[in-house]
Amino acid sequence: MAKLFFALPLHETAPELIDWRDRRPWPGLPVPEINLHLTLAFLGEADEATQARLMAAAERQHCPPLRIPLDQTGWFHRAKAAWVGPSEWPNELNVLAKALRRHGERLGLGNGEQGYRPHVTLSRKAGEAPAELPAPDFVLTADHFCLYRSVSTPDGVCYQPLACWPLRA
Ligand code: 3AM
User: How close is the Cα of 16 to the center of ligand 1, in Å?
Assistant: First the structure.
């Protein structure tokens, strides 16, 4: 069994975001650069056969390359996650996230959540919201999406990409 989720990798935006975060007061425990991602759909525990079916479904998914501004900070009170995200985002992102969540649901995965709020978590165990100003001013340009496995290690959680697929119209 493996704990899975679909996400957009950050690549060149990741070091810029880390640098930006680390230059200002930011609540909580910092997420390491290598773990930064923008979640599309949380799936949860899946066996190998289910994983193979998820990959086959992802292979058939179509979505154009995405340009997502990261121009807002935010905080999930319950999850204690402090993040940056877009104030507005292309509808194609909603469509992709919904389609991937549906693929998971058809296989009995997911957590039943309907709302989608794109974000990049920059810290966990955050007891308060990050300051809104100065606002971030980054752009995530995504030309592929990946299926990740979440692995617990003695040094903390680590997200391993299992497979990636191009975003193309
Ligand atoms: O890094 P973000 O915030 O996008 O919070 C977890 C992380 O999201 C989320 O899945 C991503 C990779 O672990 N996650 C973990 N457990 C979850 C759950 N039960 C969950 N999301 C929803 N329901």
Answer: 23
**ipTM of this predicted complex?**
0.93
**Residue among 4, 17, 29, 42 to mutate when testing ligand 1 (max atoms within 8 A of CB):** 42
- In total, the chain counts a number of residues equal to 169
pLDDT value at 163 more than 90: yes
Burial of 25 by CB count in 10 Å (0-12 exposed, 13-18 middle, 19+ buried)? exposed
CA distance 93 to 64: 9
> Of residues 11, 103, 119, 144, which has the active-site annotation?
119
* pTM for the structure as a whole: 0.96
Cis peptide bond N-terminal to 32, omega within 30: no
The pLDDT, as a whole number, for residue 113 is 81
